[in-house]
């Protein structure tokens, strides 16, 4: 495993599921973790396990996003890794979606990624290095029934990250995107651990290992995209 000692990593959506698994794994590798989520109680528990900093925040709020970066810099003096993992989703026929549901998915999945990247970029550019990793979805590359709003938000998030990759490469900043398939988490009000999910879903730890893989790439190598499929668990 890569030694991340003295590296500072911000992980959003860190209170449970994929974000929690990422925070715990990066902490095991020596990183100092800034845990971000809306749920303060669960976030505190993860921060204690990682010996990190808990920053309750709504990533879709510009002031909150800037607060996350400010707190990380105040506490640790630098940021090396930003994992944009916070996400929400609901699924229905297009005609049954409300405007509020549509807006919420775009606010968290797209605007949240945009705001955090925008807030951290001056710091990463100034230090001539850093790594932004977006946790998107395999539905950023395909469509399916009942997935118009969630899929559209993930297509948009993917566009933000792939464009940013081109804009910051000359500053020594990497941008990578991971596209998980189905993951056994609390996402969309699911309860992890069902027998069916055991057979068909990835585990949060699988996605954390994908983040580790991306971070282990040599300095001169950029892993632009990493697709992880259920069942085979092949990258």
Automatic annotation (TrEMBL):
This is NADP-dependent 3-hydroxy acid dehydrogenase YdfG. Belongs to the short-chain dehydrogenases/reductases (SDR) family. The keyword Heme does not apply. Keywords: Oxidoreductase. It comes from Hymenobacter daecheongensis DSM 21074. GO terms for molecular function: oxidoreductase activity, acting on the CH-OH group of donors, NAD or NADP as acceptor. It comes from the Bacteria. It holds the Pfam family adh_short. SUPFAM superfamilies: NAD(P)-binding Rossmann-fold domains. InterPro entries: NAD(P)-bd_dom_sf, SDR_fam.
């Amino acid at each position: 495993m890569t030694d991340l000692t003295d590296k500072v990593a911000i992980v959003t959506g860190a209170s449970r599921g994929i974000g929690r698994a990422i925070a715990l794994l990066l902490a095991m590798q020596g990183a100092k973790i800034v845990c971000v989520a809306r749920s303060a109680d669960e976030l505190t528990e993860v921060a204690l396990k990682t010996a990190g900093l808990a920053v309750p925040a709504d990533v879709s709020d510009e002031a909150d996003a800037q607060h996350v970066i400010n707190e990380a810099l105040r506490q640790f003096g630098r940021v090396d890794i930003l994992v944009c993992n916070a996400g929400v989703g609901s699924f229905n026929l297009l005609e049954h979606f409300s405007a509020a549901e549509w807006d919420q998915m775009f606010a968290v999945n797209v605007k949240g990624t945009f705001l955090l990247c925008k807030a951290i970029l001056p710091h990463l550019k100034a230090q001539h290095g850093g790594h932004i990793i977006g946790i998107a979805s395999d539905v950023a590359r395909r469509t399916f029934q009942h997935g118009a709003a969630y899929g559209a938000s993930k297509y948009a998030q993917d566009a933000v990250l792939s464009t940013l990759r081109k804009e910051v490469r000359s500053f020594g900043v990497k941008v990578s995107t991971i596209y998980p398939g189905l993951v056994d988490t609390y996402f969309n009000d699911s309860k992890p651990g069902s027998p069916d999910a055991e057979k068909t879903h990835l585990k949060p730890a699988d996605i954390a290992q994908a983040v580790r893989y991306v971070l282990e790439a040599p300095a001169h190598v950029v892993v632009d995209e990493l697709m992880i499929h259920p069942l085979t668990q092949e990258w």
